[in-house]
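Narrative summary of target 7.
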Amino acid sequence: MTTEPNLIPRPSRIDWNGESGPFTGDVRTRVDPSLAPEAYRLTVSSGGAEIAGGDDAGVFWGRQTLRQLRGLDAFRRAPIEREPATVPYVTVEDAPRFAWRGFMLDVARHFLPKDDVLRYIDLLAAHKLNVLHLHLTDDQGWRVEIERYPRLTEVGAWRRRTRMGWGEPLLWDERPHGGFYTRDDLREIVAYAAQRHVTVVPEIDLPGHSQAAIAAYPELGNADVLDTASLEVMTDWGINPNVLAPTEAVLRFYEGVLEEVLDIFPGRFVHIGGDECRKDQWRASPTAQARIRELGLKDEDELQSWMIRHFDRWLAERGRRLIGWDEILEGGLAEGAAVMCWRWYRGGVAAAQAGHDVVMCPQQEVYLDHVQAPGDQEPVPFGWVHTLEDVYRFEPVPPSLAGTPHAARVIGTQANLWTEVAENRARVDYQAWPRLAALAEVAWSRLPAPDERDYDDFERRMNAAHYARLDALGVDYRRPSGPRPWQQRPGIPGRMHNKPRRPWHTA
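Modeled conformation, tokenized:
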């Protein structure tokens, strides 16, 4: 070995004099209170390995670095090499840049079985990502069992057919699609994640993206302006007008949902969506207009804010914290809420300057359902082109916050993968990897400014070692040369954005 070990994400400091040797398998671990939370110090020598962590999580992340040093057998389910691994004798000192290093997986549009979710927890942990944001409910499906409202899964977890792709021609998969996680399934997922120092953040979307819930319980919708009993679980994609009614009965219903969600998910944050809520029905609804007058609100945006504030207080009373998409800023932001910024940087900047914590995940940078290269070879082309280099040059703290006290309000970042056209594990793998490895380095490592980052070195480390690790893990990632034949989707229409992406430095 003639170069520094090919680690991803890159550690803060690596000391190596070129000496390597067999790994004995002896690993000694301890918690060192002098180290920061999640930080670790790894020393590998002829006598084995010692890992000191600032806490148990730090020890675990040190183990992940040692795993990379040990070679490909450490990523296989069973070893195939007969000889002990040869490892570099190094000292690694490391700590994460951000506390929130996440990945959002949409299991509402296309359901993924429990085992696939557990597998993704393993993949996140191997890359020192520590948040799995599960998008559990949407117009196209409700995926969490709620015992007091059984029709949410009896009806809301299934749709009769599914739109294939975007745009023209209209194509349909006429097979029913669905599935859901039982409460015990989700408890298992949470426990499995906790063992790997990954927090699972549930998302129950409201007041928009709620057609699956309304199909199950029509009284949740705006029955004074449409026949909610005729609604079915949505089979198409896009933003739809069928949103929750702003009534006390709906609040009580979702309080009941969230009581069971809190019983399953012990983490601090609960995501309530809040995005893409069309307010046409509220404008036409006598009930909604009466509620606006009763509460002394200015308009429908403030009506949505009233709903968000209600659940912010409700969660705070139970020791939890609300987080939502940046639309929750409209009409006034709930005092204790955190913001997940997806529409460029503007909402996140405003929230941080107002004293709210922010997770940066702009669609123009880190939406992994968007294509990975230009041209017609990418399966179901959608969105903007986000190459591996684009993701590597993503900067979660925008220039307008950098160097100010408000920068500390950016508590982290994540990549989001919506699954309208990612219908199974293989498609999710293709869209997520290798770009999620780049996001992991952005979230963990203290990198220079985007235009100063050494992408050539990152690409070298990927080619020298990390693609082989993904192969050993069984990840069906996009190869640098492009999609393999079975990864292509000929004939399935896509939809690309017409407007160019804005450069990061304008944020």
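The mean pLDDT is 95.
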